[in-house]
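Annual report, structural modelling task.

Input specification for the fe (ii) ion complex:
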Amino acid sequence: MNIQHKTAGFDLPHLQEQDKLHRLLSSTLLKKGGDKGDKGDKGDGGDKEANSSSSPTSPPPWDATHFNLHNVEIFTDATANEQAEILQLCSCGLLEESYFIEKAGMGYMAKMVLLAETTEERMLYALFCGDEASHFDQICRFLSTPEPVANNLFLRFLEDLIESQDKTVLLFVLQVVLEGWGLSHYRSLAKNCVDKDMGLMLHSFLQDESRHHATGVTLFDRIDVTSSSQNTIIETLASFLQMVQVGPQSVVAAIEKVKGDLSRQQKVKIFAELDTETHSGSRLKLLRSLMSHPNAEIILQQLDQRGSFHPFPPEKCV
Ligand SMILES: [Fe+2]
Ligand SMILES: [Fe+2]
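The model returned the following structure:
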């Protein structure tokens, strides 16, 4: 019981299914209106097994067009089984990412409860903590035990970021930029999801996430950004933006996992067919607009100067 977990809580284990706390958790979630009972599985956040995303008979929740794979020759030439496998891997990756983002969200909001400077701010964060717990519970129903985060650069970045003791950095990077980004990410996931229940679930997160983002914007408005915080924000965002500049790496990794090792030339071709520059370009544009804030002019200027908002061409993505 003395193990010190990081704030993001990525390594927090789940309790056994028969543990009494599950019943208390279910009734608490129900009271909050989150636990809508079974979606074909337990919905208890415990050791999960079969569900709609991992069932071999149901189609992957996102199809080829969502990932732009319909334009990729090695994908369109693949057998139906291989195509399904690639889509399943890509879809699973999206769900796993959401699992960890919501898990980190609980830790982040709890930290902000303690950092709050007014009663109302503390109340908001306490309520947001409940939002993220409810989102997390709902995502758990669609996911079997997720992979460890070690190989996911974004999750490792998020895990380190949440440990920051600088409230200005947390507010701007996590709540203004990442929650804003998460909002549009969930919107597009909800819109393109072929699984009706999952689509509705994702859609139901949007209002909460938009309040999380708006609170970040409102609080950041009132802050005097010190030059030390400003520098940390610039460095942090530059490394985050680079993960976007390099294009849809996980899609290429999924192809490689199913089709076997790819040469550098093959990868460049795939990034080109995925239209990585357009894809990353529009994401970077959205991120830039999220960062456009009167208190963040210098931050934006510096990132502009570094070219952080320019997507990499296919050759540079490999
Ligand atoms: Fe959330
Ligand atoms: Fe959130």
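Residues 72 and 175 are 35 Å apart (CA to CA).
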